[in-house]
Write a structure and sequence with these properties.
It comes from Gracilibacillus dipsosauri. With about 220 residues, the protein is of the alpha/beta class. It has 8 helices and 11 strands. The strands form 2 sheets. Strands 3-2-1-4-5-6-10-8-11 form a 9-stranded mixed sheet, sandwiched between helices. Strands 7-9 form a two-stranded parallel sheet. α1 packs across α7 and α4 packs parallel to α6.
């Protein structure tokens, strides 16, 4: 299975491309914004597609040509304004879904926010609410498509070393989770069709990732 990783140069994305390249069932195509970011991925033996998420749908569809799955790990980041949150976390996300349709790619995995419900929007701090709103509507758009989607809602992301153990269910108590372990969850979701049409929250826990994903 060839996987287009959107947001490959992000912290989850880098772990993900590395894990994909280590898996004999998968191979990665890293979608990056700048050719200067390419050496890391070339060293892993991954294919490269240089596309800016603010480009047209057709450019993203071209990057997706010939792949079997798309993973959206991109995000505007905590230090950008509402404009970038809207352009990346909502508009760009939707454009990648439309690009998937154009490229005839059915499998799509979205890395969302921990809680994107209406209640979460109402209770979010003012500075964080636009991000939750963007993620909410991106998730809703994805669920309205005919894509074989999985939506992963990670807890508070850390750069701690992964433990390959998580707590994973439709709803779990808030907690932290290493980005490395979210990348592992994505890999297991790609190779387990039982995750299609599902969404779940993930935090650090005591269940091996492979077992947790299979229980979905």
């Amino acid at each position: 299975m060839k996987v287009l990783v959107i947001g490959a140069n992000g912290q989850i994305g880098k772990h993900l491309v590395s894990f994909i390249q280590e898996n004999d069932k998968l191979e990665a195509r890293a979608m990056i914004r700048d050719e200067k970011q390419a050496p890391y991925f070339k060293e892993l033996g991954a294919e490269i597609a240089v596309v800016d998420l603010e480009d047209e749908i057709e450019a993203i569809a071209k990057a997706a040509d010939g792949v079997d799955a798309i993973v959206f790990t991109a995000g505007s980041g905590p230090n950008t304004g509402k404009d970038k949150t809207l352009m990346i976390d909502l508009d760009a996300a939707v454009k990648t879904m439309e690009a998937a349709k154009e490229a005839k790619v059915k499998r799509y995995i979205m890395i969302s926010s921990f809680d994107t419900t209406r209640e979460a929007i109402q209770s979010a701090p003012e500075s964080f609410a636009p991000y939750v709103v963007a993620k909410h509507y991106a998730d809703e758009w994805l669920k309205s498509t005919n894509l074989d989607y999985t939506i992963i809602h990670p807890g508070l992301l850390t750069n701690d070393s992964g433990k390959n153990k998580v707590e994973l269910a439709t709803t779990v108590a808030r907690g932290e989770v290493p980005r490395e372990d979210i990348a592992r969850v994505i890999v297991e979701s790609l190779i387990n069709d039982s995750t299609i049409g599902k969404e779940f929250q993930v935090v650090g826990g005591s269940t091996p990732v492979e077992e947790a994903v299979k229980s979905v």
